[in-house]
Design a protein that fits this description.
mainly alpha; five-stranded parallel sheet; four-stranded parallel sheet; elongated
């Protein structure tokens, strides 16, 4: 059910809508009636439905509403009845008000004829012919069509607005203000008022022009005879000013005396207009049969002024003689034929043309195009040539008709447009119409259609009937001073002259009548406070003061004195008014507001926008500077109303468009997270209220204003305890209190009050649901709990602790000002001082941003910024300072920098004592066997921004403290969790240690015990002698958790330093320590990385120590050395790699961070050493092997670091970084260690049955665990899954291929053990580079076959070739198993990269090929991050670029490895490294105590058989 629906849908602007300040001004319902409650009860007594009796006061019966609406009527603006109704306000209710006369005007008399009278005006009679002559028929038709189209479109929009409900009595001002709001309404209303006022000035100037030029020229006060040029123009303007002022005064007096006289003369003035137009059309028809005689005298091609001569000829024949004429005497110095004459006069003939050739003369073709003139140009006849010396001076210019102004197209538009205004005349009389919704659209559109037809036909007819020079003759100087349009009229020019004179006078009176009433309406709306005085008037409602202001403004137009200069001014104001009428209709249509239901259906938002565009275009076409001035005036009025105007709520469209724009902007904010550059603190201010619902910390809002300065989002929130039904009034009061304080502190934002059962939940709700959509707060501002030390107010700090936790969980910034009451107000000023920033841990730049924002405000502007950072023992404080200065320079922040060194001084006894007390307190609570909630109730954990200073209260006072936390009858089990931990206990055998920190050395940790807890403690442990004894226990410093002791020590030292350095600072900013991630300070063991990575570590361990060890024991007499030297070298290499790799990859803050991942990476480095070891197996001493490991690990680590950091390649299985590097490093070393005597074989370089079995066992271990080797460091999930599958498939295929090829390539067709021991592993290497990519199982199988084939052929043919021709004795064939297969793997990886597409991989492609991910700032990155949260920006590489980097990594790795191996080989050749002789190679006896007869052949069945299998 919907209750209390809005009642402003219909009938805006009722009888009391002007100036009564009633917010329900537009409501015609009975609840807005002024009847008393008794009257209402009598009126509805016995008529109500009993079910709804309680709602009758604010929800009347439907029948009553319908009756009110049906009888609702508007009164004419400024009527006597309206004024009397206003004056009698507050009189006795029993006094009967006079009856109101019902509106009676129809469409014809009420709308059509008034619009006709207002549209037809002075421009038609005085400037229309001149415009056609200057602009041509074609150009003038375009101007008329544009202007008429503009008014027609505006009329359509106006009709839609006028038929949307009851039309208010006030015309266009009410349409705009009730549609676009008071700001736009007031601004446009003033513009419309100014336009109407200047229209009055224009009409008066037109009347004076008619009087002084055409009717009574001799009445001029400033004589113009004998003057020329500027003097004559000045005299004319002065005459206009004098007579204009006189006429204005007369008209203002007439309007003041009584409007009824003006209204009675309206029909007379209208008749004059219609008769004048009919006379013109009659004259046009007459020209077709008998054109009027209006000769024009032309000298050469120049038009002559007709005054001063009687015959258009130089000489005439009289009495058989030639006699000169008066024209001769004008241009010559005597009347004789031999006189000296004007050169142009002498060289050119005089001709006479007909000024009105008639409609059938064909003159239309000559007048078709424009003839624009500069000021002072001669009016020349087209088609007549003239003799003229261009260098000759111009003389007698006052005898020619000259252009009085410079003309151009846009000037014509500005002058003409006032002739199409006046379309609002019908809507201005809406209060007098019987059916305004029907009459206004029909009458206005019909009037515009009529006038448009008249104007367009007049353009064509004038061009077809009148000679061009006559059309361009603005004042008719060439046709005996006649009005040009009058020369065309029938039966006499005086019909037009007299008719147009009375018409302009009537239009001027109408303007002076309408403008003051419009100003009065605006004033009574109280939207512009300084205009209120103009809302008053005479007893009959006449706007006296408004009339006086109107006359004064009109006088400005009179002083301008030029009709051509005044016309563009009022064009601006009318165009602006029309533009906003169109805008109002378009907005209402697009916004689809529920009350937008016009009866006029022939409108569309596109037409309204077209009309608005035409208005705006015409404004700038007429005069761009006038347009800017008009817009500036409207903008100033708009801002003034917005700043100081009375608040009105009319349900305007601007509010609707604001809502639509806000919705659009909010939806845009939802498209992705904001960029770092756009981040700014959007603050949620949490305040508390007292019992009277007043804010307890008003300075929080002062600080908010200083931080925000009106920018961004600010939400001020508070919580009221209770239920919504019972405490809604309190919430409203709190909201009003917040709004009032926000207005006082000039905080621009929103207030939000929630009602909750307790403050903690209410605060949590505010943090969670504050804001809307993407416009949410990212920062919470809350005051430090100032009374947290008091036991009876412990809820306050516990709520604060929950705020800390919740903001941390929501990833929001938290600002906690301490001692907020001491913060400066907005009116204070700091003339000096410092803002100190203690940058202890990096917080993303928040600490740097806060002082910058504060210093933008006048309170903190004079404060300087100091930044302190803390250096520990192993930090370079000088370099830290340089780096920080550079950092601040890049941030463009001016601040002093100081690095504070925190040395590891001795830990004080006090620190030990405090740590011991806290740990013992935790132990005792545990021993009490309290429930979880009870224990938490006994713990108080206090946080502070100083990170640590802790003091203990006098133990003797603790026993007397009682908890006032809960009222009687409340169970302790109902208490929510209240615990925070800043000092984390890492000792699993001791309980969690609650601790706190305070900001000053005098702060104290408080312990509060309830009666129940104390009783339980005494009963359960009587031997302790009460709680007091725990503080008398002897400190056992040895048993303390040293981590807690160090934390306590750091907190104490840091607090001392801050107090010392920032003692005089105006403000200190520092990081608050965050709360623990879990509320019980417990971690989930299974979340540890150990359980994720250790299985792979264990598998690789087996490969390193068992797999490689057994595989290298294949020589018959070298089994001890193969396995034990592998053990020795691997152990050393792993430890050495941890240090070297840790320096390059895992070093932070001068320390190597150790974890299982470090061990896995170190084992990969160890594998590199062991593979290289295979190249020199049996020919090196253990010392040489350790030296090789010592040198190879750094070279490998540097190469790995450089390739991963700069080339950024994909190599999940280590084909490039491990296998290729190890292979070519070992080949480089064995190349230098070449032994010629071993090239043909060695007697001990053979295997045995037992050694081959042991070696195959190593192969099996490597084969089984190789999937772990390839997948250990791949991305967890699908990538790791693919790596295991591809490795297994590759190994399987290489194994089958190895067995087949071994039998095929053996002459006896038998399987060779050396092939099984090595070649079966080739598939694991071959798939390495592409192991985590989507290469398909078939591709993995093919790679296994290819790798096995290459490895087999390498053993068979390549290894002997390298030994014989390249001096490379590859003892174990590492080039075959790791080199050739590694190259194949690299090629396969490059192919996989080139063929990888997003269609195949989906968005996960940018996880596998992380360097192909879009770069930071790329919009695509935001889209991908929505699909894959946590996706990091990449380098934006293409597949081809990544492939090229892979190729570069292959060759650079091979080159670095070979060079490193060669150099290492030279080191290994040093004589004191105990290199074995050739004879003692491949023999354990040199380094081990071997059993006797270890070298004897195996006895089998009484026979001696020697194993002839060869080494691999």
């Amino acid at each position: 059910m919907l209750n209390n629906m809005t009642d402003t849908e219909e009938g805006e602007g009722g009888p009391n809508s002007q100036g009564d300040g009633n917010p329900k001004e537009s409501s015609p319902f009975i609840n807005s009636s002024s009847a008393s409650d008794v009257e209402k009860s009598q009126q509805y007594d016995g008529k109500n439905m009993a079910l709804f009796e309680e709602e009758m006061d604010n929800s009347p019966m439907v029948s009553s509403i319908l009756s009110s609406l049906a009888n609702y009527s508007n009164l004419p603006q400024g009527s006597k009845e309206h004024e009397e109704a206003e004056n009698e306000e507050g009189a006795a209710p029993s006094k009967k008000k006079p009856a109101v006369k019902a509106p009676s005007l129809g469409t014809l008399m009420g709308v059509y004829l008034p619009c006709i009278q207002n549209i037809f005006g002075v421009i038609l009679f005085l400037r229309m012919t001149w415009m056609v002559g200057i602009g041509g028929v074609f150009g003038s038709f375009i101007i008329v069509f544009m202007c008429c189209s503009t008014t027609m479109l505006t009329a359509i929009s106006m009709s839609a607005i006028a038929t949307n409900g009851v039309v208010p009595a006030g015309g266009s001002y009410y349409m705009i203000s009730r549609s676009l709001g008071p700001e736009f309404g007031g601004a446009v209303g003033i513009c419309f008022y100014l336009g109407t006022t200047f229209a009055g000035a224009m009409y008066i100037l037109g009347a004076i022009e008619l009087l002084l030029i055409y009717i009574l020229p001799q009445a001029a006060i400033f004589k113009m005879e004998g003057l020329e040029g500027a003097d004559m123009e000045a005299a004319m303007l002065n005459n206009m000013r004098v007579y204009g002022t006189i006429v204005l005064s007369f008209m203002a007096t007439v309007v003041f005396v009584g409007v009824k006289y003006v209204n009675k003369l309206a029909l007379v003035f209208l008749a004059c207009v219609i008769l004048s137009i009919l006379a013109v059309y009659a004259g046009v028809i007459k020209t077709a049969f008998e054109p009027p005689v209006f000769p024009v005298c032309i000298l050469g091609n120049r038009t002559l002024i007709s005054k001063g001569f009687d015959v258009c000829a130089k000489v005439i024949e009289r009495d058989n003689g030639t006699v000169t004429t008066k024209l001769w005497k004008i241009f010559c110095d005597s009347e004789f034929l031999n006189a000296t004459c004007d050169e142009y006069f002498a060289n050119n003939n005089v001709s006479e043309i007909q000024g009105i050739p008639g409609v059938s003369s064909g003159i239309l073709a000559e007048n078709l195009f424009g003839y624009y003139l500069e000021k002072g140009d001669f009016l020349e006849k087209r088609g007549i040539s003239a003799m003229q010396d261009p260098d000759a001076p111009i003389t007698n210019s006052n005898r020619y008709v000259l252009a009085d102004i410079t003309s151009f197209f846009t000037l014509l538009v500005g002058i003409y447009f006032p002739s199409v205004t006046g379309i609002m005349a019908g809507s201005n009389r809406s209060g007098d119409l019987r059916d305004a919704q029907k009459s206004i659209p029909i009458g206005t559109i019909a009037a515009i259609t009529t006038t448009s037809i008249v104007y367009m036909s007049a353009v064509v007819l004038f061009g077809a009937c009148i000679e061009g020079v006559v059309l361009r003759d603005k004042f008719g100087e060439g046709v005996d001073g006649n009005l040009v349009i009058g020369t065309l009229a029938w039966p006499s020019p005086w019909v037009i002259v007299i008719g147009s004179f009375f018409s302009t006078c009537g239009a001027g009176l109408q303007s002076l009548t309408g403008a003051p009433r419009l100003l009065q309406a605006i004033s009574r709306d109280s939207v512009i406070p300084f205009l209120k005085v103009f809302g008053h008037g005479k007893a009959n409602g006449e706007p006296t003061w408004a009339l006086l202001l109107t006359a004064s403004i009109c006088e400005i137009g009179i002083i301008i004195a030029s009709l051509d200069a005044v016309a563009p001014i009022l064009s601006m104001f009318f165009l602006m008014c029309y533009m906003f009428v169109n805008l109002a209709c378009a907005l209402q249509t697009l916004l689809r507001t529920p009350n937008w239901r016009p009866r006029f259906k022939f409108y569309h938002w596109a037409l309204s926008f077209l009309g608005m565009s035409l208005c705006l275009s015409l404004m700038f076409i007429c005069s761009w500077y006038y347009a800017i001035v008009a817009m500036v005036i409207a903008t100033c009025i708009y801002k003034y109303i917005e700043f100081a105007g009375a608040e009105k709520e009319w349900g305007d469209g601007i509010r609707g468009i604001s809502l639509s724009a806000a919705r659009f902007a909010l939806m845009r904010l939802e498209e992705g997270p904001p960029h770092t550059k756009n981040w700014r603190p959007q603050i949620m201010v949490l305040v508390s209220m007292d019992s009277e619902q007043n804010v307890e910390q008003p300075r929080l809002l002062s600080l908010t204003n200083q931080l925000k300065a009106g920018k961004g989002l600010t939400i001020v929130g508070t919580s009221v305890v209770g239920t919504f039904l019972n405490n809604h009034a309190e919430a409203q009061k709190a909201d009003q209190s917040l709004r009032k304080l926000m207005e006082t502190e000039k905080v621009k934002g929103f207030s939000q009050v929630v009602i909750s059962s307790n403050l903690r939940d209410g605060t949590s709700h505010l943090i969670q649901v504050g804001g809307l959509g993407g416009l949410k707060h990212n920062t919470v501002l809350v005051s430090w709990p100032r009374t947290w030390k008091q036991a009876e107010d412990n809820l306050r700090f516990r709520n604060f602790i929950e705020v800390v936790r919740e903001t941390t969980a929501a990833s929001m910034a938290l600002l906690v000002p301490k001692n907020i009451a001491a913060y400066p107000s907005n009116g204070e000023r700091f003339t000096e001082g410092h803002i100190d920033v203690w940058w202890i841990v990096h917080d993303g730049g928040m600490l740097m941003l806060l002082p910058f924002l504060l210093r933008q405000h006048k309170v903190w502007r004079k404060c300087k910024m100091r930044i302190f950072t803390v250096a520990q023992m192993d930090d370079n404080s000088i370099q830290m300072k340089k780096d920080l200065i550079t950092f601040l320079y890049h941030l463009r922040i001016d601040a002093e920098v100081e690095v504070v060194e925190m040395h590891d001084s001795d830990i004080s006894a006090y620190t030990y004592e405090k740590t011991l007390v806290m740990e013992q307190r935790s132990q005792i609570l545990k021993q009490m066997h309290l429930t979880k909630n009870e224990m938490e109730r006994e713990i108080q954990s206090i946080t502070d921004s100083s990170r640590g200073s802790i003091r203990r209260k006098n133990p003797s006072n603790l026993q007397s403290q009682q908890s006032s936390e809960e009222p009687a009858g409340v169970s302790v089990e109902e208490k929510p969790e209240e615990e925070v931990q800043l000092i984390h206990n890492k000792n699993p055998t001791s309980p969690t240690t609650p601790a706190g920190s305070a900001a000053t050395p005098g702060s104290e940790v408080q312990m509060t015990w309830t009666d129940k807890a104390e009783t339980q403690a005494a009963a359960g442990h009587p031997e302790q002698g009460g709680v007091k004894d725990i503080f008398n226990m002897k400190p056992e410093w040895e048993s303390l958790n040293q981590s807690n002791v160090r934390r306590m020590h750091t907190a104490l030292r840091l607090n001392e330093v801050i107090m010392k350095k920032s003692k005089e600072a105006k403000l200190v900013l520092l990081n608050m320590p965050g709360p623990p991630k879990n509320r019980n300070n417990e971690t989930k063991p299974m979340d540890n990385a150990l359980y994720r990575d250790y299985p792979y570590f264990a598998d690789i361990q087996v490969m390193i120590f068992i797999g490689f060890g057994c595989l290298l024991a294949f020589f018959r007499l070298y089994g001890f050395s193969g396995m034990v030297f592998n053990f020795l070298t691997a152990t050393f290499a792993i430890q050495w790699a941890i240090l070297v790799q840790g320096y390059f990859q895992f070093s932070h803050a001068g320390k190597i961070h150790l974890g299982v991942i470090n061990l896995i990476n170190a084992e990969f480095a160890c594998a590199v050493v062991l593979i290289s070891f295979g190249a020199v197996l049996g020919k090196t001493s253990p010392v040489q092997l350790l030296v090789m490991a010592l040198l190879e690990v750094p070279v490998f680590s540097v190469n790995e670091w450089a390739v991963l950091k700069y080339l950024r390649i994909n190599d999940a299985g280590g084909s490039i970084l491990i296998h290729l590097f190890a292979c070519y490093f070992g080949l480089g070393a064995t190349f230098v260690l070449y032994r010629p005597r071993l090239n043909e074989g060695h007697a001990k370089e053979n295997t045995s049955y037992q050694s081959d079995i042991l070696s195959v066992m190593g192969t099996l271990f490597l084969w089984v665990f190789w999937p772990s080797f390839n997948s250990a460091l791949t991305l967890k999930g699908d990538d790791q899954h693919r790596a295991i599958l591809h490795t297994f498939i590759g190994l399987s295929s290489s194994t089958l291929t190895a067995f087949a090829l071994s039998a095929m390539l053996n002459k006896n067709g038998k399987i060779t053990m050396a092939d099984i021991q090595n070649v079966t592993l080739a598939g694991g290497v071959t798939v390495g580079a592409s192991v985590d990519m989507m290469i398909s199982p078939a591709a993995a199988y093919a790679l296994g076959v290819m790798g096995c084939t290459a490895c087999m052929l390498g053993y068979k043919y390549l290894s002997p070739f390298l030994a014989r021709h390249l001096r490379i004795q590859d003892q174990c064939g590492i080039h075959n198993l790791h080199g050739l297969t590694g190259l194949i793997s690299c090629a396969a990886g490059i192919c996989a990269i080139l063929t990888a597409t997003e269609e195949v991989y989906g968005p996960s492609m940018y996880e596998i090929f992380s360097h192909r991910a879009p770069m930071e700032g790329d919009p695509k990155l935001l889209e991908l991050q929505e699909l894959i949260p946590g996706l990091q920006p990449g380098l934006g590489r293409s597949a081809r670029e990544q492939a090229l980097y892979q190729v570069a990594a292959v060759f650079s790795t091979m080159g670095v490895a070979a060079l490193g191996g060669i150099l290492t080989g030279f080191v290994l050749k040093l004589p004191y490294l105990a290199s074995p002789s050739d004879d003692l190679c491949f023999d354990d006896e040199l380094f081990f105590n071997v059993p006797p007869h270890y070298d004897c052949p195996m006895a089998l069945n009484g026979q001696i058989k020697t194993d002839d299998s060869t080494a691999s």
